[in-house]
């Protein structure tokens, strides 16, 4: 059982932005490098988080990425729920589709279980992810070169 | 968020065996075909379920696959917990590893959420998955040829 790489990258982004200092310039490239994520993946996550109203990308001098008030208040459950969606947890509609799909009791049980998973994360705020001991690690992330990928 | 294909196949197998009639001969090939799963995947699931004591594979005349008493009583949570394991839900230890992994608060929150997911499935028994309306569909599964794969 795994989250998608997209959710993983998005949450790393949100956690780093949660500890940004006033006036700190964080670009998509900077956070991608800090979080050991390819630039293109991070750019997609930034776009989606902006679309969800959680991140603002300010242009120009003194611009950069910052968490919105909503991004600071939102629960991790709300983010994960939005990004992971409500599709099936098994290959019910795969190719070939599962012959049980029309009357399957497992399908509903898995969805209920996922609801319990999301509900557990509803109690976790973005702000709390940036508490100690995470805060120090987040603040000290370095901009070191990452595997040669360049824009 | 998805279960592995292995868990999916294993649960399909268990559900079909839960409605087997006394004396019904179900081979690995038969259930693979019925459940639209490649034979090799089903053979691995049968081996693992036997190892876990949930399925018995009787050899010889009148042999075939059947659910053990334990397999009938076990919760879906116990099966999923065993098959999905306790690894990370994100790529914490990927290549490159996540720079936050040593102090990450999300990592623990995700594990707790998975525990809630498993706990929800702990309340679901294999027997209950074979209740109506699933039972009829399970009983009526046909042995139709599946995409040409042969042993």
Give an account of the 3D structure.
The structure is a homodimer of 151-residue chains. By secondary structure, chain A is mainly α. In chain A, 50% of the residues lie in helices and 5% in strands. The first copy, chain A, is built from eight helices and two strands; from the N terminus they run αααββααααα. The first copy, chain A, has helices at residues 5-17, 28-34, 39-51, 69-73, 76-84, 105-122, 126-129, 134-139, and strands at residues 55-58, 64-67. A two-stranded antiparallel ribbon of chain A has the order 1-2. In chain A, a hairpin with a 5-residue loop joins strand 1 (55-58) and strand 2 (64-67). Residues 146-151 of chain A have low confidence and may be disordered. At the A-B interface, helix 1, helix 6 and helix 8 of A face helix 1, helix 6 and helix 8 of B.
Number of strands of chain A: 2
Instruction: Please tell me how large the radius of gyration of chain A is.
Output: 18 Å
Give the N-terminus to C-terminus distance of chain A in angstroms.
33 Å
Number of helices of chain A: 8
User: Low-confidence parts of chain A, pLDDT < 50 over ≥5 residues?
Assistant: 146-151
| Average pLDDT level of chain A | 89
Tell me the β content of chain A.
5-15%
Q: Give me the strand/helix succession of chain A.
A: HHHEEHHHHH
User: Helix/strand/pairing class of chain A, anyone?
Assistant: mainly alpha
Largest sheet of chain A: 2 strands, antiparallel
Helix content of chain A: 40-55%
Spatial ordering of strands, largest sheet of chain A: 1-2
């Amino acid at each position: 059982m795994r989250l998608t790489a997209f959710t993983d990258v998005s949450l790393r982004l949100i956690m780093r932005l949660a500890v940004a200092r006033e006036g700190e310039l964080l670009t998509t490239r900077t956070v991608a490098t800090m979080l050991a994520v390819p630039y293109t993946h991070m750019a997609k996550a930034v776009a989606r988080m902006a679309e969800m109203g959680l991140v603002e990308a300010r242009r120009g001098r003194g611009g950069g990425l910052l968490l919105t008030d909503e991004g600071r208040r939102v629960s991790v459950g709300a983010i994960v729920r939005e990004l992971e969606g409500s599709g099936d947890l098994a290959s019910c509609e795969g190719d070939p589709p599962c012959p049980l799909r029309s009357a399957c009791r497992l399908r509903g049980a898995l969805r209920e279980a996922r609801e319990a998973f999301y509900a557990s994360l509803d109690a976790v705020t973005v702000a709390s992810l940036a508490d100690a001991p995470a805060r120090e690690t987040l603040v000290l992330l370095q901009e070191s070169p990452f595997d040669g990928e360049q824009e």
